[in-house]
Predict the structure of Acetyl-CoA acetyltransferase.
Amino acid sequence: MPSAPPVPSAASGPPVSSRAPSGQRKVAIAGVALSDCGRVDEATPYALHAQAARRALADSGLDRSVIDGFASAGLGTLAPVEVAEYLGLRPTWVDSTSVGGATWEVLAAHAADAIAAGQARAVLLVYGSTARADIKARRRTANLSFGARGPLQFEVPYGHTLIAKYAMAARRHMHQYGTTLEQLAQIAVQARTNAAANPDAMYRDPITVDDVLAGPMIADPFTKLHCCIRSDGGCAVLLVAEDYVPDLAKPPVWVLGSGTAVSHTTMSEWDDFTVSPAAVSGRLAFARAGVRPAEIDLAQIYDAFTYMTLVTLEDLGFCAKGEGGAFVEKGRLLRDGELPVNTDGGGLAACHPGMRGLFLLVEAVRQLRGEAGPKRQVHRADGGPPQLAVASGTGGWFCSSGTVVLGRG
């Protein structure tokens, strides 16, 4: 790999980035991209990684030689060493923290901290999976659990599958707060409506609450449309020090604050099924960014199941605990709603190849740049472009959470 060029002269940071601690470099997202997504039968996961990485680098306008940091998870025996080798990179800062779907928000937080502290200058995050194609070609089977070793040995013999854990938590919320199946179904309906304006979404046809309720039961109370789709796809995000901002092809999106948290592995160790670790990661991220939930213009939330969206909205502070059911009604999550959520269609309709968290960051950046397209672009009440976004990923069965607050450059 060619040696990195001298770091460009520092730019005058935009107002939204002034919250960084004194003496630390500000961090921007310079490039984002998707690989081919949806139904991708002829590519390997490595190829999707490479495709997304090339596109994100092109989106940034920077040369690959600036990359001195790399983060990836989920592929290879020595992830991310194998993926970095495949991409022809020789990073001096590396991370492969894997905590399920929240992995990418956690990795973004780590990368931003490393750049701010001067340990790296440009960190590439990249993901790719052919989960759908592999099952179709019988190269693998669907996973019902994460294994039977360690603490999980006390649950697996009883048939407590991954989806059953989410379903049990949803039932608890329904029992405790009166949340209804119709309210949960509204999340799936609005996600599909948002997906209709996204040409990259896997499912774009409209659905109704009745469609959701009438679907085949997967794990009570979840019918099929309460659950995320299975797709192929990949994406990449390039984070850089503020010094590179003058050389970017597009306006930067600034990392204002982040937070991470873990909760439990064994369900018996989960204190409250109605509270996710986003209650901690969100509080930390907003405090570090110096903003309040009420100031956020749009949210990208991990949605493997409809209940995940609902409880995360509560835990991030967009509504009070127990009020998520009422909050998601009346189109509040639509692109032109009170709080646009998963504006690409999310994992329920657009793309979910496995650990979807990196896709949340891609969509948030595109919205803040104003490049989501005329039918999908979010606008503030005054007609102006969005200024603040939050991406919140969830891993395992509410085991982990990573939340990142982003600001428009």
Notes: The chain is about 30% helix and 15% strand. Confidence is low (pLDDT under 50) at residues 1-19. The CA atoms of residues 313 and 319 lie 7 Å apart.
